[in-house]
Specification:
The chain is mainly alpha-helical. It contains 17 helices and four strands. Helix 10 runs parallel beside helix 13.
Length: 398
């Protein structure tokens, strides 16, 4: 299926989607000034600088590790077997057997030797196993967890969490953004966000049995990755808005473009819906999504960037709500969002003002709410064979 790329919006025009048969250099939104167009970068006095994140969002710096080597092959095999197991008991039995055979203890002893990229690869596989076994709500360090999960697996889980300095990584950011690879080797080296936008993607760890078409859970995770790749535009616009006051002319321009990007992301998700509906449905996949939703672990990270700018988190607003949604992100990413919270505060004062800038701000918030609802429909489709509902917010599923 041809992927969709965002094209640079002409002045006063809308961002459009176009099928891409070959990768192209990614364009960036323009900022007002002497030149008619140019990259959206923070102004020299802007206190938030996100060079890496602005380039590729929350995606990893390089494509995820597709194949682990040596002893770690056992973890990849276990993750694949648990994800495709016919039921919960079978998945947990596979983990228990690996614990009895000493495989998990052997892996735990090697965690400290992992490179950062391979540590991320191990975290993906541990997250898949935890979700497949219904353990996504567990704290591996809590004594009560021993009554539910295999002790050797909990030891490996806590060791990986310590290695990546991220205790709560069993959520959508890990399960989606570290679980993709280009279907074919790109013809040339591409930035990771452009690679995820323009190349057909396949899962690193499949939730669907080998030899069968990808199921709805696999399709949802890949759609989330493409959403994040296109959403790198929001990072650039967030950098433009950081530190700007309501009277700044660039605030108005950036808000217009933020609205257009969010509309484009919504159109992209609608395009993913047909492919998702055509994929095989599975009650087991629905149970995995339900467990993640109960933990509020299904929020696409890119939405949190728009939240930091617009403060449009709905009933989740407030410190506790932000913490709940962001806890599945790595520490550095949470710090970036906290900085955006602080430096985009002047933009959020538009909610209490009048005039055209305030109207643009309200439209931007409404477009984010609509985007969330569209994603909620995609999740509903993945979890329930009945299809996508006409309405309903992300609160209903995440």
């Amino acid at each position: 299926m041809a992927s969709t790329a965002l094209t640079t919006p002409p002045p006063g025009g809308a961002i459009s989607g176009r099928p891409t048969s070959a990768p192209a250099t990614p364009a960036t939104p323009a900022v007002p000034g002497p030149a008619p167009a140019g990259p959206v970068d923070p102004a020299p006095t802007t206190p938030v600088r996100t060079p890496g994140l602005a380039a590729h969002g929350f995606l990893p710096e390089r494509p995820p590790v597709r194949t682990m080597a040596g002893t770690w092959v056992r973890l990849s095999e276990l993750a694949g077997a648990a994800a495709t197991a016919p039921d919960l008991d079978t998945a947990r039995g596979l983990v228990a057997r690996a614990g009895r055979d000493g495989d998990l203890t052997a892996l735990r002893q090697r965690v400290s030797r992992l490179s950062p990229r391979n540590a991320d690869a191990a975290s993906l596989r541990v997250a898949v196993i935890a979700a497949a076994c219904g353990w996504s709500a567990l704290d591996p360090l809590a004594p009560a967890a021993l009554r539910t999960a295999d002790a050797a697996f909990l030891g490996l889980w806590s060791a990986v969490a310590h290695r990546i300095d991220h205790q709560q990584f069993v959520g959508l950011p890990t399960l989606a953004l570290l679980n993709w690879a280009p279907e074919r080797k790109p013809r040339r080296r591409l930035p990771v966000d452009q690679l995820a936008r323009t190349e057909p993607l396949v899962p690193v760890v499949r939730w669907s049995p080998p030899g069968q078409p990808l199921g709805r859970l696999d399709r949802l995770m890949l759609a989330t990755t493409r959403l994040e790749a296109h959403g790198s535009w929001l990072f650039r616009l967030a950098g433009t808005l950081a530190g700007r006051g309501p009277g700044d002319a660039s605030t108005r321009t950036a808000l217009r473009r933020l609205i257009r990007v969010q509309h484009a992301l919504r159109a992209q998700l609608r395009g993913e819906a047909a492919e998702l509906r055509a994929a095989p449905a599975s009650a087991r996949h629905g149970a995995v999504l339900a467990a993640l939703a109960a933990q509020r672990a299904l929020e696409p990270p890119v939405f949190l960037v728009a939240d930091a700018v617009l403060g449009a988190g709905g009933r989740r607003a407030g410190e506790s709500g932000r913490h709940q949604l962001r806890r599945y992100l790595p520490t550095a990413h949470r710090a970036r969002l906290t900085a955006l919270d602080r430096h985009c505060a002047p933009v959020r004062t538009l909610a209490h003002r009048g005039g055209p800038d305030a109207a643009l701000y309200c439209e931007a918030r409404e477009s984010l709410i609509a985007l969330r609802r569209t994603y909620a429909g995609l999740v509903h489709c993945a979890a329930h064979p009945g299809g996508i509902p006409a309405g309903g917010g992300l609160n209903t599923v995440a």
